[in-house]
Design brief:
Elements lengths: L8 E6 L3 H13 L3 E7 L2 H9 L6 E5 L7 H7 L6 E6 L5 H6 L4 E4 L4 H17 L24 E6 L2 E6 L3 E7 L2 E6 L3 E5 L2 H7 L5 E5 L2 E4 L5 E3 L2 E4 L2 E4 L2 H12 L2
Parallel strand pairs: 1-2, 1-3, 3-4, 4-5
Antiparallel strand pairs: 6-7, 8-9, 8-12, 9-10, 11-12, 13-14, 14-15
Length: about 250
Amino acid sequence: MNSTAVAPLACVIIDDNEINRLTLERSVQRHDQLALAASFPDAVEALAYFNANGRADVLLLDIEMPHISGLELVKLLPEPKPAVILVTTHASFAVDAFELRVLDYLVKPVGYARFCQAIARVTEQHQLAPTLAVPLVSASVSLPTDISASGTDLFVKTNGKLLRINFEEVLFIEALSTYVVLVTDKHKHIVGGTLKSIEERLPFRHFVRVHRSYIVNLHRVEAMADNLLKLGQHEVPVSRPYQEEFVLRLRAL
C-alpha cells in the first residue's frame, strides 16, 4: 500500500428527495477523493448524527426540507463544521447561502463535472487549512513570499525586498505575463508568480476573481456598468464565467 496516499474525505448527504439523494450518492461513489459516510432523508436525523460526533469532512445539503431547512441546519451544526455544499433547485437562496460562508452552491440538476469542481474546492480548502490559520501567502507558492503578517497586511517580495502591504488599500490584482501587479491608489507593486497562485493562497474572502486577468477587492468597488467595475481611477472588466459568483459575493457583503 502506498504510504503517501491521501485518505478520502468523509461525505454526508442530506436530501429529502430520494432520486436526488441517490444521484448524489452515485456521484460521491464515483469520486476517488470521497467516501460516503452517511446519507439522510431529512435534517433531523442528520443533526442527531452530528451531535453524536458523526464524522463529515464535506456535507452535501439540500435547502428546502421539512422540519429543519438546510440553511437552519448549517447554523445548528456543532463545531468544527464540515465544508458545506448546498444543493438546491432554486438559485434564489444564493445570497443567504454565502452569508453562512458555505463553500459552494449547486443548482439541480447537478452535472458530474460541476460536482467535481465543487469537490475540488473542498480538497483545496483542506490542503490550505493549516496555512489559512494566519494571513499568509505561503512560500510554497510561486510567489516569492515567505513572511506572514497579521490583520489586513501581508509581506510580499517586490524589487528584491520584502514589503508590507495593507491589502485594504489594494484595488485589484492584475496578471502580467509571469508577474502579477498589486494596484493601489498610489502605487503598483510587481510580484513574481501567477494570478492563479495568489488566488489560491490569498486569505481574504473579499478578493474575488472577475476575469482571467483580474482579482478585485470587493471593498473598493465603487460602481458597475456595462460589465466594467470602477475602482478608484481604474476600470476592470467582469467576464461572463465569473459574473454570477461576483454578484453573489458582492451582495453578500
